[in-house]
Amino acid sequence: VQLQASGGGLVQAGGSLRLSCAASGRTFSSYTMGWFRQAPGKEREFVARITWSGGSTFYADSVKGRFTISTDNAKNTVYLQMNSLKPEDTAVYYCATKYYSSSRYDYWGQGTLVTVSS
To answer: Residue 68: which pLDDT band, with cuts at 50, 70 and 90?
Structure first.
C-alpha cells in the first residue's frame, strides 16, 4: 500500500487549501481513510476520516465546519478541503488508512506541510 499526500503550502489566515492523498496497492472499498496533523512540538492529532464505501465522515471538533473530507473512488484519492484556515492549523498533514473495523491506522503517507500565516 502506498499513500502519496500533496497540496500543502503557505496560505494567509482565512484562506483555503485542498490536500490530496493518492492511494494505491489494493482495493480500498473496505477501508477507512484518515487525515492527521502534527504541529511543531506537539503530538500528532486526528483531523478527519471517511469510509471509502459509504462516505461516512467524522471530524475533530477543531476543524468541524471548516474542513471537508471526500473521496474520488475512481481515482483512489482522498481530499481534505480546508477553508477559513487559522494559524493554529499550521502542521504537517498526514493521510493514513486502516481496515474499517481496525482500531489502528496501518499505512501512512509521507506528510505535506501546511503553513498558515497571520
So the answer is: very high
